[in-house]
Amino acid sequence: MGMAPVRFTILGPVRAWRGDTDLDLGGRQQRLVLALLLARAGTVVGLGELVDAVWEDDPPTSAVNVVHRYIGTLRRLIEPDLPVRAVGDHLVRHAAGYQLKVGEDMLDLLRFRRLAGRARQERDPGQAVPLWAEALGLWHGPCAAGLERGLPTFVAIDGERSQAMREAADTALAAGQARAVIPALRQAVGWSPLDEPLQARLIATLTADGRQAEAVEAYQEVRHRLADELGIDPGPELAEAYDRLLHQKGSPAAKEPERTFVPAQLPPDQPFFSGRESVLARATALIGEGHRQGRAAVTLAVDGMPGIGKTTFAVHLGHRIAGSYPDGQLFADLRGFAAQGTAMTPDEALRGFLGSLGVPQETLPAELHALAGLYRSMLAGRRVLVVLDNARDFEQVRHLLPSAPGSLAVVTSRVRITGLVTTGGAHPVPLDLPSPHEVREGLVNRLGAARVEAEPAAVDEIIARTGRLPLAASVVVARAAALPGTPLSDIAEELAEAGAGLDAFGADEDTDLSAVFSWSYRALSPGAARMFRLLSLHPGPDVTVAAAASLAAVEPRAARMLLGELATHLLTQSRAGRHHMHDLLRQYAADLSTRHDGPGDRREALGRVHDFYRSGAYEAQELLARALAPPRPPEPRAGVTVPAFAGPEDAMAWFDAERRVLDAIVEHGPPGVAWHVALTLQTHLHFTGRLPAWEATMRRGLAAAVADGDLAGQAHLHRSLAGALFNAERDDEAPEHLTQSAALFERLGDRPGLAMVELNWAYVRAEHDEHQEAVRHSERALEIFRSTGNRENEARALRTLAGSRAQLGHTRDAQDLLRETLSLSWDIGDELGAGHSWDLLANLYRRMGRPEEAMARWEEAAGAYKRAGSPAALAEVQLAMGDACRDAGEEEAARQHWREALGALAEPVGPVAAQLRERLGDR
């Protein structure tokens, strides 16, 4: 069964897929070459045209060669199984240039043209409208969005869209199906806001769909834009569309709603409010976009943990935008999580709002639905702001939301009210912790710049101790403001003396953090309350469902439900599938756990979570191409859900996601767990080029293995630490660790371990140009690997032997050895090993003065390293390819390779990163 064909899109960003996999199309220049070939699909694009598209008026001397290289890369992308130098079926070379042969099933532009052609041929407008809608639905942005916008080819394709859009609108109006094309029209005028024919058709379709208010707003917006940007009035077509709108029977365009009572219930704004600018900007944008769509009132759902400042934010936002709602502002504290009393009922809230709107209480109906109906009728035709603070659930607010276009509701809650978003159509506006800069800005606003700037260390301490939680910070700031003569260092010292507890933040019912947190804790189910308490034992900053399941000894499905309950009260979802607990909440949970969970339960929970990470890390590294497997850890205890991984990419992604937790275990966990986890991190840190972290992790792991008295762990960790030092070009210390590792492996009778140390010695000797010694070590390692049937390490030893043989002048012998290693690597499916072999062959060909063959082998190596998930090795290959291009006078191609190499590194530190920055002139 052949490989699935590639599908391309150019009606928007240029992208490509094979099956469900989004393919990497390379840098901007290569994508631009592909875009031009796609835009001219089926016709020959001249080399000169491709060069002009990429470099405009200033191509380098190597431009043609670079385009050929881009073409080669794209050909391998489209047909990866194509033999070297074979002519492909899709990207074809002609004397004048290149032609990309793609069918309608491979390119959205061709499908768009076919559907548009069918729509034009359809005599029945009602049958043509769905064809137009399908054709226009293929567009996701201007042609080749994100690339060069001035190319005539792309501009012409955008013109096809505009023409199709005009025809589609006219057809829909004739068929009485205006609504079918309004979304595409809105999208089109967003891309081309000064296109008057498109704007005229948007106004006409909105009018035909009975959405006169939106049509008026659309006209006013384009009229202002034409005046501001072009200094002109609307043209005849646009003016005619507006005239038809105004003279439509029953048009409300000139009507003004009757206004009686104008409530102004917003509480006073916080006089020292600061920060939150990005969230305020997002909220304002959502409001503006919602009102422009004009279908209904806009609702914002503001949620966040206790003490995060939701009410303060909502009130400040309300005051900022109150002028846009001339018919009044309504406010209610729904007491969803009040310390005392019961939550406000919808009936109670509606009666209060209707009274504020001038309806006598004695005339109000008794039924909830009748009250809600009267409320909606009172708001019809008005622009009102409604702030519903401290909501508990959707049922509490559903009848309080305005429905008429032009109004706004802002709902705050410490829970994530799913129904408000799914059923109520609200826009979620999660409120996270402010940045340290924003907290500092708040201190300046309240205490004055002079006082804050005079004691920067104390201010840093205050920010750290409050965890940037606005409620905690406000308590401390209020105390500092009440004691203007007290140095901030004294207040910081008070916080430090209070330790990690919550006592430092007062005992007032409104500011006591324990009391505020308890309002949410009391609302939890027993299972969620237990999970919350045990989460204080988790060793890292965030937790997954699987880790939480092991911590609490429950099934993952149950853990997901419990975390979901906590995520609506006391946790935040920091990343997909990961939940984070604020430090002050963690301390609150720890206090509860100390009181309610027995010492044995806490000890077992912590043991389970350590087993989860130790066993999971071991299983993950088993899927990676490591040279020497670490010792297997003990079996995890009952209740632990050991992670399962789909393959190497999944394993590498898990290490990336869990790095902070694993680091915490290595640094603070029990020695028997810490050294096991440290060893499993070796391959991930090596592959991603995190050399400082590799060294630091192995040093901590070695100390833990010594404390645990485990000789095998010490032997492995000495060897890994030597590798970290060697790769960081600090091999003055590496030999000492190799010597200790060899002695321990010898004592343990571990022949594979001894063989691996011999191979590591070969690396060290070769690095110091002691190639005869390197050959001797490689042959010793090779003998043991062959005797134990370890084919992967046999290939490693042969590659090392080949490298030294080449340096000693035995070129033919080295080539034969490397071809043998390639065969070995292919037989056992070792992509990383194959990449190393291609890399060594490329270097050999380069020294032999055969640069083209070297470049071809490096490209093979790069592909293998990508498939193996080794970005550090990929960066070294890209560095070498860039150097080869520079030596050939192809400076721009060289810089492109160097930039890609730097981008491949997870952390741009170490020798390779230093060389890349030097070449790019970035010191």
Mean pLDDT, all residues? 83
* Major β-sheet profile: 5 strands, parallel
Number of strands: 14
Oligomer: single chain
Name the CATH superfamily classification of the largest domain.
Answer: P-loop containing nucleotide triphosphate hydrolases
Number of domains: 6
Brief overview:
The chain is α/β, with parallel strands linked by helices. Helices cover 61% and strands 6% of the residues. The protein is built from 42 helices and 14 strands.
Present the secondary structure layout.
Blueprint lengths: L5 E4 L5 E4 L2 E2 L5 H12 L4 E3 H9 L7 H16 L12 E3 L3 E4 L7 H14 L3 H12 L15 H24 L6 H10 L4 H13 L3 H19 L5 H11 L30 H17 L4 E6 L6 H12 L7 E5 L12 H11 L11 H12 L5 E5 L4 H4 L10 E6 L4 H5 L4 E4 L5 H12 L1 H6 L1 H11 L3 H13 L5 H10 L15 H9 L4 H9 L7 E3 H8 L3 H12 L4 E4 L2 E3 L2 H14 L2 H24 L25 H21 L2 H10 L1 H6 L3 H18 L2 H17 L6 H15 L2 H17 L3 H18 L2 H17 L3 H18 L2 H17 L3 H18 L2 H17 L3 H14 L6 H10 L3
Parallel strand pairs: 7-10, 7-11, 8-9, 9-10
Antiparallel strand pairs: 1-2, 2-3, 4-6, 5-6, 12-14, 13-14
Helix pairs in contact: 1-3, 4-5, 5-6, 6-7, 6-8, 7-8, 8-9, 8-10, 13-14, 17-20, 19-21, 23-25, 23-26, 24-25, 24-27, 27-28, 27-29, 28-29, 29-31, 29-32, 31-32, 32-33, 32-34, 33-34, 34-35, 34-36, 35-36, 36-37, 36-38, 37-38, 38-39, 39-40, 40-41, 41-42
GO biological process, one term: regulation of DNA-templated transcription
InterPro entries: AfsR-DnrI-RedD_regulator (IPR051677), BTAD (IPR005158), OmpR/PhoB-type_DNA-bd (IPR001867), P-loop_NTPase (IPR027417), Sig_transdc_resp-reg_C-effctor (IPR016032), TPR-like_helical_dom_sf (IPR011990), WH-like_DNA-bd_sf (IPR036388)
Pfam family, one: BTAD
